[in-house]
Specification:
By secondary structure, this protein is mostly beta strands. The chain has no helices and ten strands. Strands 2-10-9-4-5-6 form a six-stranded mixed sheet, with no helix packed on it. A four-stranded antiparallel sheet has the order 1-3-8-7, with no helix packed on it.
């Protein structure tokens, strides 16, 4: 399974971006999808995750109410809509996939990782 993230860029505080993560290969083996982010000098942290059907979502407290995760299974793509962006949201964002149905909030729970996409929020 290959995961390719895109959509990052430079945006002013208060602005919006939408990240995409396209899956290819043995996509039937990927169920839960998630987004993580990593800032310089910090650990990679959980941002959001979505179940295989899209019916269940989880968010980090720091992004609740501002970010929305969604998926289009027909396109094998997961999205992260980011609104009201803050400078502290600046990070490299990674998408990840799990082979199981239960949502993990920890990077160790994910079996597949995509390339990162850089999001920079200026103040």
């Amino acid at each position: 399974v290959q995961l390719q993230a895109s959509g990052g860029g430079l945006v002013q505080a208060g602005g919006s971006l939408r990240l995409s993560c396209a899956a290819s290969g043995r996509t039937f083996s990927v169920v839960t999808m998630g987004w993580f982010r990593q800032s310089p000098g910090k650990e990679r942290e959980f941002v959001a995750a979505i179940s295989g059907s899209g019916g269940v979502t989880r968010y980090a407290d720091s992004v609740k109410g501002r970010f929305t995760i969604s998926r289009d299974n027909a396109k094998n793509t997961v999205y992260l809509q980011m609104n009201s962006l803050k400078p502290e949201d600046t990070a490299v964002y990674y998408c990840a996939g799990q082979q199981i149905y239960s949502i993990s909030l920890y990077r160790q729970g994910y079996d597949y990782w995509g390339t990162g996409t850089l999001v920079t929020v200026s103040s």
